[in-house]
Design brief:
With 87 residues, the chain is of the alpha+beta class. Helices cover 11% and strands 17% of the residues. Strand 4 (60-62) and strand 5 form a beta hairpin. The N and C termini lie close together (10 Å).
């Protein structure tokens, strides 16, 4: 995981889709480092919670498309369109 600063209107709008209360300009959000996915090669996900206990269960929004995802568990989920975090 990496912390990112919410500094553009696009990032702010993306965060407001999953958590309107925490989405404020110039705050921090998290972005998981993903494994390479041929279905979405440059996918960047943004999540609202900075708490490590919430990372696996929270919703993430794709910064480009606005779709909402949950992180897949590599040894359990077989859907190739799901984002897999690097472990």
């Amino acid at each position: 995981m990496r912390r990112i600063r919410v500094s553009t209107p696009r990032e702010l709008a993306s965060l407001r889709k999953i958590d309107p209360e925490k989405a404020k300009p110039f705050t921090f959000a998290v972005s998981p480092i993903l494994m390479e996915n041929p279905h979405a090669p440059n996918q960047v996900l943004i999540g609202a919670s900075l708490d490590p206990e919430d990372w696996q269960a929270q919703d993430y929004v794709d910064a480009d498309t606005g779709k909402i995802f949950k992180l897949a568990i590599p040894w359990k989920d077989d859907d190739p369109h799901q984002p897999y975090p690097r472990t």
